[in-house]
Amino acid sequence: xxxxIKLIVGSLLIWALVYLPSVLLSTVPIEIGMIAIGITLIPAxxxxxxxxxxxxxxxxxxxxxxxxxxxxxxxxxxxxxxIFYALLVPVKEHPLELLGWGxxxxxxxxxxxxxxxxxxxxxxxxxx
Length: 128
Known about the structure:
By secondary structure, the protein is mainly α. 89% of the residues lie in helices and 0% in strands.
């Protein structure tokens, strides 16, 4: 589960380096960024864990899981964003900020996960 830890820690560190200074310079509530990283990091973690579990049993299906994970992750993030919009007042007051930070966090987690998967797949197999 080392790749999962790398995804979570890497995403949170980069998010903190970018988001926290921007909060000091703008009027966007800190909750917006926390929601944005949460609604993108949770689905990214789920898809990475599913990929790692499937890869142990069937490497051929793991490729499909990795490709489908991008769409699943996007839909889960969007769905959670809609739920937060319906339930929380700060999100209703700053929908465009959530959309912008959500998109940025989605691309961040996608990039980190892609690098992790590339490194996992480029390692020589223990059999060969």
